[in-house]
From TrEMBL:
Residues 27-173 form the MRH domain. The lineage of its organism: Eukaryota, Fungi, Dikarya, Basidiomycota, Agaricomycotina. Residues 1-25 form the signal peptide. PANTHER family: MANNOSE 6-PHOSPHATE RECEPTOR-LIKE PROTEIN 1 (PTHR15071:SF0), MANNOSE-6-PHOSPHATE RECEPTOR FAMILY MEMBER (PTHR15071). One of its GO terms (cellular component) is phagophore assembly site membrane. This is Autophagy-related protein 27. InterPro entries: Autophagy-rel_prot_27, Man6P_isomerase_rcpt-bd_dom_sf, MRH_dom. It comes from Sparassis crispa. It is a single-pass type I membrane protein; Single-pass membrane protein. The chain crosses the membrane at residues 180-204.
Length: 302
């Protein structure tokens, strides 16, 4: 039975271990750059962001999710996956599909959308957009995107767009979860292994050993919780005192010598005790010999 439990525990450990890399991997719309962690998920909005180009064209976009606004006469294969578009008289012009893979270039998060509508002046090319997010702590809200360039420059043939977005959301932070996230994963693994041990052990004792009641619950062959607490508390005290000896932990040699008395003190006490066995018996009554003819009551009888 013990070998079976070990086998089940190993299986659970490897199964959960295979899930850990996916848990630790970057979530959508996040990126790492050294010790910096970027998360643009707060910019996902239930209402699209709308801004105007310098020439007056109306742009509608969203971040890491498709736009929620209705589109009109958009010639793309997947109109429901469009990340943004331009309102034009002959139909909306897609500037790329939704992308959740965030890049970091020169300390700035970058989101690129591709495979938009077909370029007006190139039949084998489609529109694309690069959105660079700039950290700006003075912007308390989500901020607003701004078109800084487009190629070709004229609106009728433009097919590549460059957008800047100033927002505090683009500022780097410590990675969410950090050591706590790893601790949660470890606790989840240990909890799953423990529950597997309890379930398999209960099944074995109930259907194989035919036990009932509390006898069918497996008992862990380890120290109790109170023993573990006492062990770790004693271990921490030893580390704090800087001594692994018993008795007066942390006491200096000078203090120990004072507690023991001056040199030879104990030897002198032992010699005095051997010479006078009656010495030191305080509180014991002393007796004197009675004169002849005196009884125990102190009466002299002639």
């Amino acid at each position: 039975m013990q070998h079976c439990l070990h086998l089940y525990c190993l299986i659970a450990f490897f199964v959960l271990g295979a899930l850990v890399p996916r848990t630790l991997a970057d979530e959508p719309c996040t990126a790492r750059d050294g010790d910096n962690f970027y998360n643009l998920s707060p910019l996902r909005a239930s209402k699209d962001y709308v801004f105007m180009s310098p020439s007056g064209e109306k742009f509608t976009i969203n971040v890491c999710k498709p736009v929620v606004s209705e589109t009109w006469a958009m010639h793309v294969d997947r109109p429901k996956d469009v990340a943004g578009f331009i309102h034009r008289p002959r139909g909306d012009f897609s500037i790329g599909y939704t992308n959740t893979t965030l890049l970091v270039r020169n300390g700035h998060p970058l989101l690129v959308t591709t495979d938009g509508s077909q370029c007006p002046t190139a039949d084998n090319m489609t529109a694309s957009t690069a959105i660079r997010f700039i950290c700006d702590t003075s912007v308390f809200g989500a901020g607003s995107p701004e078109l800084v360039a487009q190629l070709p420059p004229d609106d009728d043939s433009a097919c590549a767009f460059f957008v800047e977005w100033r927002t505090h959301v683009a500022c780097p932070t410590n990675e969410r979860g950090g050591s706590w996230g790893f601790l949660v994963i470890v606790v989840a693994i240990l909890g799953t292994v423990f529950m597997l041990y309890i379930l398999v052990g209960t099944w074995y004792k109930r259907y194989v050993l035919e036990l009932r009641g509390f006898d069918q619950i497996p008992r862990l062959p380890m120290m109790s919780f109170s023993d573990m607490v006492a062990f770790f508390r004693d271990w921490m005290e030893r580390i704090r005192d800087g001594s692994w000896r018993g008795g007066y932990r942390g006491m200096t040699e000078e203090h120990e010598s004072m507690m023991g008395g001056p040199p030879g003190f104990l030897d002198e006490q032992e010699e005095e005790a051997s010479r006078d066995p009656e010495a030191g018996r305080e509180g014991e009554p002393t007796t004197t010999p009675r004169p002849p003819g005196m009884d125990s009551a102190g009466v002299i009888r002639l």
